[in-house]
Amino acid sequence: MGSGFGLLFGPVLCVAASLPERASAGAVWWYTLGATLTISALALVGILTLYLQGERLHAWLLPMVGFAAGALLGDVFLHLLPELVERKGELDLPSSLLILLGTLTFFLLEQGLRRWQAEHTGRDDHEAHLAHVSTSPPRPEGERRRSLLHARPFAVVNLGTDLLHNLIDGLVVGGAFLFSTNLGIATTIAVALHEIPQELGDYAVLVQAGLGRGQALLYNFLTALSAVAGGVLALVIGQSSESFSLLLIPFTAGSFIYLAVGDLIPEIQAHGRPGHTASGVVGLIVGIALMVALHFVGGH
Questions:
Q1: CA angle centred on 165, ends 161 and 167, rounded to 5°
Q2: Beta-carbon contacts of residue 215 (< 8 Å; ≥ 6 apart)
């Protein structure tokens, strides 16, 4: 698995090493648009369920969930917080409060969504990415193909939540590129890795709600495009207010800490069986190692 990740992210490290640490305003726009479009395209990852079913899909997802958690934590402690301290000179009280606010905000959002899910569907595992990936054979497409208006109500709620989630992702990526190119690349990778299991879970929820596979992919992709809108919004605000990125970065750090420790790592514990959990731990270590490599490539 490590060699596969190396082949995949070796070119990313080379690109990161070749880019200037502080990009021009025009380059920041191109970097942000490219990054958010890439993140949006990950909404199509649900197509993997056509080729990987049941145990094979779970076996692939566990190391990916660990990889995402490691990348998020590595981005926080090796990129986001060091960049913030370098820019401000210290980790002051406002920044510390914003970190806590980011953690608390994502916790409350997740709890609110889980409560709604439990009340309307009888399930309380909406945010568990692996819980919705069924190990049983899929039902025939004709049995569940409905329009969005005739699908189960939680399909609309899931799409609305995903739209907000991706908008925040775009804000985070745009704010990171405003700070520095290396921080933008590291944050884009962390967000993208988290999006893979997230989007697989969202796709599975839409299929369970009664949408066909093609419909689920389309709606998932359309809501994911809000990441581009979030990136543009971050650049518009950030380029007119220098303090914007100084507020957004600690908030992002807090949200990443919660996503990794409160969301992803518990999934490895809950869904991993003996032998499988180890692959999640290896993924966690590899994700951190990738952020370490980007730290040195960025010249910190």
A1: 115
A2: 145, 147, 148, 206
CA angle 159, 177, 288 (to 5 degrees): 80
What pLDDT does residue 161 have? 74
Task: Give the pLDDT confidence of 249-293 residue by residue, as tens digits.
Answer: 999 999 999 989 988 888 887 765 666 678 888 889 999 998 998
- Listed by start position, the domains of the chain span 29-45+54-137+144-297
| DSSP letter, residue 88 | H
**How far apart (Å, rounded) are the C-alpha atoms in residues 116 and 124?**
8
Q: Tell me how far CA of residue 258 lies from CA of 74, 138, 183, 250, in angstroms.
A: 13, 32, 19, 13
Mean pLDDT per 10-residue interval, the chain, length 300 residues: 53 58 79 94 76 64 86 94 91 95 89 69 49 46 48 66 87 91 90 84 72 81 93 92 87 93 84 71 91 76
Q: What's the burial of 54, exposed, middle or buried (CB within 10 Å: 0-12/13-18/19+)?
A: middle
The residues near 137 (Cβ < 8 Å, ≥ 6 apart) are 53, 54
Using an 8 Å Cβ cutoff, are 172 and 165 in contact?
Answer: no
pLDDT value for 6:
53
User: Nearest Cα to 187, choosing from 225, 195, 93?
Assistant: 195
Q: Any long-range contacts for 109-114 (C-beta under 8 Å, 24+ apart)?
A: 110/262, 110/263, 113/157, 113/161
pLDDT of residue 50: 60
Q: Which one-letter DSSP state was computed for residue 78? A: I
Please work out, in degrees rounded to the nearest 5, the angle formed at the alpha carbon of residue 107 by the alpha carbons of 171 and 68.
Answer: 60
Please, are residues 68 and 193 in contact by the beta-carbon 8 Å criterion?
yes
* Rounded-to-integer distance, Cα 108 and Cα 276, Å: 30
